[in-house]
Write the structure tokens for this entry.
Amino acid sequence: MRAGQYPLEEKPLLIFYEITKACPLACRHCRANAILRPLPTELSTKEAMKLLDDITGFGKPYPVLILTGGDPLMRSDLMEIIDYAKSLGIPVSLSPAVSSKLLSEDTLRELRGRVSSVSISLDGARPETHNYIRKTALEPIDVFRATLEAFSKLRAFGIEFQVNTTVMKLNVHELPQIFKIVRDSGANAWEVFFLIRVGRGMELEPLDPWETEDVVQFLYDASLYGLPIRTVEAPFFRRVVMQRSSGAAYVGGGLYRELINELRRLMGEPPSNAKKPSFTPTRDGYGIIFVASDGSIYPSGFLPLTLGNVRRDNIVRVYREHPLLKAIREARFNGKCGVCEFRTVCGGSRARAFTELGDPLGSDPACIYEPRVNNA
Ligand code: SF4
């Protein structure tokens, strides 16, 4: 993600477009109810291309378009849509499922030179964990092994990739080993998602707030080994980065000590000249926007509040003028997020506030931080 003076008030850094809901996986925590055939409500090729035309209205440099799903590889016009985006100068990333023969060498050959990066999910350091979470609906393959093979193939084809991990009670103890696998894989970043209970995510148990704090503190320590780490739905990682970078110590609970001990055992001590992690202050609806397969526009894939539909609404206008997005980018939050000194760089997960409290501007229930009182 690019940092610096990017005008997040005027345009998102990232536009997620769920190009199809069709997917051969049936992951237990998927925000979408993935299916094996495209839905009739999906945007047509022509409508998808009109969305791309509309995106150019944000002006250059254009946001990065992340084609997600479902499995975007199940969309037959995928390469046509990518080529059209490229012809307009819109950078494209792809978030395919690792499930079957779809992510084949032939596909990677087609993607090379077309996409700027690919993201691949790894939710366990052990096959049992990853295969339990990422079930296949089509064929009984070892998704864990296929994922490790995907890393090798992407490396061989010279395609940049990042690894995404959704953290929950089920896999939290495997985080240090997952980190090592990701670092050794040649990935250019590790993106850690914190579970929000939507869609099939209802089946799984998220971390409690103290465990969440232990994990984001652990991620700070892990980031000192040189691999960029970002969080999704835990923007208070930036609060932790600011606190720890300015010398604040963290004693932490038992989970933190367990994760750190394992990290040190696997990786040794971090280099003495380790660079402090940097970040961009995006959050649901600020720097990020999501277009569902039927064209509905949401602040993010985890915040199911419809802002409009690209079939009738211009995405530029929605991003710049929707009252909810204005409130989010102006950090007009309720509860403790509204008075927190970190609210402009963090702002809490709007998706979790909505899911747990019914208020997209409420406080993030996963954050343990108590703001100083004089920041209202
Ligand atoms: S209280 Fe809210 S704004 Fe402050 S660090 Fe926690 S989540 Fe972020």
